[in-house]
Each structure stands twice: as structure tokens, then as C-alpha cells.
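User: Predict the full complex structure for these chains.
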Amino acid sequence: MAVEPDLKIELGKQGVFVTTVSEIYNWGRKNSVWPMQFGLACCAIEMIATTMARYDLARFGAEVFRPSPRQADLMIISGTITKKMAPQVVRLYNQMAEPKYVIAMGACAISGGPFKQGYNVLKGIDRYIPVDVHIPGCPPRPEALIHAFMTLQARIDAQPLIGSERPRHLDVDAQGLFPVPEQGAHDLEPPVNRLVWPLPASSKPAENCG
Amino acid sequence: MAALGFGLAPLGLAWAWARLFSPAKPNAVKNAIYECGLESRGDAWVQFRSAYYLYAIIFLVFDVEAVFLLPFAVAFTGLGVGACAAMLVFVLLLAEGLAWAWAKGVLTWA
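Assistant: Here is the predicted structure of the two-chain assembly.
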């Protein structure tokens, strides 16, 4: 049960700070998102620029890029995912600690981008793992990544801790394992993860763009 | 005793905190030993051939020689007889090592 905003402001004027458990819990979560140090292609250069002094992602509590998935909360898919790389990306996502988030950065991570027609390019990472924020652009500028990060923070902040909308890590029954695709004869097997990708996608061997 | 407790108590608290509150969702992929995205394969106890030792030693002959030859060449015109003789002895020592390895048949690898 949230505190009424007016009451909160009135109490604040008297020097009384009121909050709820979910508010303070989410405030802690959204300001301590640790991204994984993981670059795939040219978007990674923009990601690196975002963390440097000029754009300074540290302002949002996310300057600690962890080189291990076990210490990371956020995976920034920064670039083209080839079909050879996709199993590794999904495996790394699986190895990240809960609660975990994904930002699909740039046209390639969203849909394959300019390489969509390529036989070896995955047409968007959200065929295998759930993506929280998509950033269009080729590549997106650091400001766009910061905007995506703030969007993610707003999402985390708005998440209720109970009910059907609660984050996955608080749901004991929620599945934490996302199947890692394998290299088939012509394409990745399975071509999509049906749990996260409800839209139609060709299950035939890629004739053109799968 | 108190100092030991002071050291161990935070560790215990951190452990208990993690046990109580961490949202653990373990699975086979997450519990894998290796964490770079690829699956580990083979044994960690890889053995290298001892013949690589000889490669390393002979590499060192050229490596050390090159490091000292460059300053020697740069300062060559200003050097006295003693310095020149010392450098020649050094180069000869290394050349002798190479000759020894050559005579031993180390340089002919299959």
C-alpha cells in the first residue's frame, strides 16, 4: 500500500521521511545495476564511450562493468549477434545472477539490422532471451544508451514486489533457465525460444532470412 | 579471541544474509564451472612437451643478444678497447651456446 503523494510531501515538510518497503527495495535495485563487460561489435565502442568521463554512466550507479556474468545484472547486447555467437550469449545470460536485465543496443541486436539478410546473422536476440529495453540506432549514440538505462531504471522502479507483475527473482516458480541453442545442420536449433518469442518465425532451414 | 570474532562475524553475517535473501535460481548452465560463454572441454591438467624448453632456451640466446646488441651498436664509435672486448666475449658466449645447440642437433626439428 503506497503512501499518498500529498501526505508524503506534507510529512516531508515536517522533516518526516516516509517510504514503503517496495519503494526502498526498488530504489536500491535501480541504482546498483552492474552491467556485464561484454561487447559484440561496433556498438560496443559507443558503450565504452558511455562509461567514460564525457558521458559518465557512473552517475546512474552503473560504472562497475563486471568481467564475469556471475557478478553482473545487466547485459547490454552491443552489436551484431552471429549465429555462431548466439549460444554463447544465451549461455552467459543464463549464468548471470538474478535479477537480470537485457538492453538490446542498436539495430543488429534488435533485428539483425543491416546484416539481416545474412545467412549467419541472428535476427534479434529477443528470439532467445527476454529483452527489457530496445535502443534503435546504428550505432546508437551514448545519450541513447543512457536513455535506455534510465528507461530500465524507471521500469525497475515501477515493478511491484508482489502479484503477477513481480520481478522474476521473487517468483519461486518462474523459470530461470533459457535453453541454449545449438548449431544445427543449417540453422540454430531451436530457431527461436517459444517462451520469449511468440511471433511467427520460420522453423525451416534459413532459405533467405529466417 | 575477540579479534578473531571481529574478523569472522562479518563473514558469517554476509554468508547468512546471502543465504536468507539472495534470489537463487540455480540451473545446470548457471552452475557450470567455466563462465566465458563457451563450454569447457578436456582436462585442465594439460602437459606440454619438454622439447619446448629447448625452444625457450634458444629463443633466449637471440633475445638477450638483440637487447644488448642495439645499445652496443649505437655507442660503438665512442667505445674503448676494454668495452669492445667485453662485448665480444659476451657475444661469443651466446654464439657458443648456439653452436653447442646446433652440434647437439636441437636445431633440426621434424
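Chain B has three helices and no strands.
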